[in-house]
Amino acid sequence: MITGAIKNKVDKIWTDIWAGGITNPLTVIEQLTYLMFIRSLDEKELETEEFENMTGEKMEKIFPQSAVGQSMRWSKFKNNDPREIYDVISQRVFPAIKNMKHGRLPDFNEQGEFVDIADDFGSDVQNETAFARYMSDAMFLIPTPQVLQKIITGLDDLYEHDIADLDMQGDLYEYMLGKLATAGQNGQFRTPKHIREMMVELLQPTPDDTICDPACGTAGFLVSASEYIRKHYEDTMTAEQWEHFAGDAFTGFDTDRTMLRISAMNLMLHSISHPEIDYKDSVSKQNQISDKFTMCLANPPFKGTVDAESINDNLKAVTNTKKTELLFLALFLRMLKKGGQCACIVPDGVLFGSSKAHKAIRKELVESHQLRAVISMPSGVFKPYAGVSTAVLVFTKTGAGGTQNVWFYDMKADGFSLDDKRSEIAENDIPDIIERFHHLDKEADRQRTEQSFFVPKQEIADNDYDLSINKYKKVEYVPVEYPSTSEIMADLHALESEITAGLAELEGML
Question: Number of folded domains in the chain?
């Protein structure tokens, strides 16, 4: 758990970077990501050396065994003069991680040029991390040696005194990602952790699942899914399941290389060393994946549109549109295996939009697959950076129907105030949502006036497949008793007398 003291230390590092002139939160996180990665390489090397000393067995090293190679290690340079640290990182370490191959850093010759790493070294190519894969266009932007030294000192203090394990490291990164309070141009923004965790709890992933977020951003959904699996299965997982967990259990796509770097680092900090993180426009012809995943968790971009020519034809066959929020629903259906589950966030417009494309995707979900739940969320969930009303759709790909009754839930509170401050409050429907969803047999007798209820498929079909909860929810009107007309008139006369008396008193004072 991240305490107030740790938050203060992170905020201090953040302030130091801001004071150095870097004010974009995404850039701050990216620069911190590089430094955390550089430190993690040295930690891994120290573990390897310790294992060598214990067993006498020679292990493959990350850092070159030359003087220059060893000088690139965090433990070797962190206490040096600020200018030396700056030179080592900017001229040696950073270029080296941009040219990392097979999990090894290149060496430098006397002229300061790279000594290429032979591709036939014999290492498993899988050792190249997704993070290193997207480093080619990365830039080191820390402006001065003094700012860099403050960051290194601050990070070192955090790691040595406050971060006890991988969970803690992940929580620290999550706290930093929470500072991303600006939405991107295509409508992407970070999904709050408690909402992600609710969606994961609804689907209940297992160690055998293959999970995808085709609009992964900072990989929050994949991280939440991995945490759920570790929490519930860590003590019973086989070696094969752990291997699956570290690699191809988690797949994410994005079209922003900065996000890909950050998401890869986020997953690495949660023990997922070789995730399938790829640069891909998920709804384009570039993405041909189908029937591959057992689970999709996502908050796809809402307001984005894409070039009609680039959209994959099999998505247009389901919903002929350029709207990304509709195309992604068709994409989930295509990428899932039969029996695969999806929990995704959609803007309210998807639920009741009257265009042919809106109706087509809703009809596809209801008639050709099993739409299980529509959870309506309050509009303040994504504040302070978006006030859009949203809902969570939960469905299973069947290809043969299966929708009989759709469960609706009207979420009124998520444990936080619905204003820009998003302060913690006592009211929270999320535990109730999870409890009711996993015991739907008890929901059959609920009335439409309650917070959750079932709606038969035929009624939804008769309403043009409208999925907005207000279409089906019944409001109880409580009669209000008003005073009689004579009483109201008497009160008005008394009020008029008071005003007349007050005016007379005021005139007497003039």
Answer: 2
To the nearest 10°, report the CA torsion of 472, 478, 479, 481.
-150
Hey, what are 243's tokens? 């291997």
DSSP state of 305: B
Claim to verify: residue 396 and residue 445 sit in the same structural domain: yes
Query: Residue 217 in contact with residue 188, Cβ under 8 Å?
Result: yes
Q: Are residues 422 and 441 in the same domain?
A: yes
CB-facing half-sphere around the CA of 44: CA atoms within 13 A: 19
Do 198 and 148 share a domain, yes or no? no
Res. 182: pLDDT tops 60: no
CB contact burial 275-310 (16+ within 10 A = b; e otherwise): bbbbebbbbbeebeeeeebbbbbbbbbbebebeeee
Q: What are the structure tokens assigned to 194, written together?
A: 């408690």
Q: Which domain holds residue 445?
A: 181-471
Q: Which residues share a beta bridge with 373?
A: 394, 407
How far is Cα 196 from Cα 194, in angstroms, rounded to an integer?
5
Q: Which of 58-67, 95-104, 146-155 has the lowest mean pLDDT?
A: 95-104
Domain assignment present for residue 309? The answer is: yes
Cα angle: 214, vertex 215, 218; to 5 degrees? 120
CA 84 to chain centre: 37
pLDDT in tens, 20-51: 888 888 888 888 888 888 888 898 889 889 98
DSSP secondary structure code for residue 275 in this structure = -
Specify the DSSP class assigned to residue 274. S
* Element of type H or E holding 227: helix 220-233
- What's this model's pTM, rounded to 2 decimal places? 0.78
Task: Say which DSSP state 365 is in.
Answer: I
